[in-house]
Amino acid sequence: MAAVTSNSQILPVPGFPPGVDVHWETQRRMVWNVREHTSEECELVYEISWIPERGLWRRFLRSQRKVKG
User: Can you point out the beta strands (E) in 1-69?
Assistant: First the structure.
């Protein structure tokens, strides 16, 4: 069994202006389609938001769609 350690230090982060704590990021990537056993280009939309209590950014996938054409 492997032991895992982590070191979490709070780094100084400059203040962010009000209203700039959530934004979306779109990326186009080649992803593997398990059902069709092929690679296809997809558009991935991530929501990125600031969590002041933790002093870090949160990022998670909001939507994924196949790019046509």
Answer: 22-33, 38-51, 56-66
